[in-house]
Design a protein that fits this description.
mainly alpha; about 110 residues; c-terminal domain of poly(a) binding protein
């Protein structure tokens, strides 16, 4: 009896991954083995960069807070220390947004913890 191979399922699996690699450069979009390897590597990059995104945004918030704090005559570390000492519970994301978009509110916070 001849061996039965499920061509429909294997072709569908290949089509699904080739559809995900549309837009890639050169053989990465249409050669099965290259496309599969590229797609798998892309998944590892996506996992890694979901973590790095948090790191990058925190660094950006710190830079923005530091710049605004220095305009008020304090450094970032002095400001954060004063916030913790005063018991002001405000995270860096909100503080950076205030520093960028609502300068008066940021100045009020700095005046409160001074």
């Amino acid at each position: 009896m001849p061996r039965s191979v499920n061509h429909v399922a294997s072709r569908a699996k290949r089509k699904r991954i080739l559809k995900l690699t549309r837009g890639y450069f050169g053989a990465r979009k249409n050669v099965w083995t290259v496309a599969k390897n590229t797609w798998e590597k892309g998944l590892t990059y996506a996992y890694r960069d979901r973590k790095n995104k948090k790191r990058s945004f925190r660094a950006l918030w710190i830079q923005r807070i530091n710049a605004a704090a220095r305009m008020e005559g304090m450094s970032y570390s002095q400001l954060m220390g004063a916030l913790h000492k005063a018991g002001v519970e405000i995270n860096r994301k909100v503080l950076a947004d205030l520093a960028m978009n609502h300068i008066e509110a940021f100045k009020a916070i700095v005046a409160k913890v001074r």
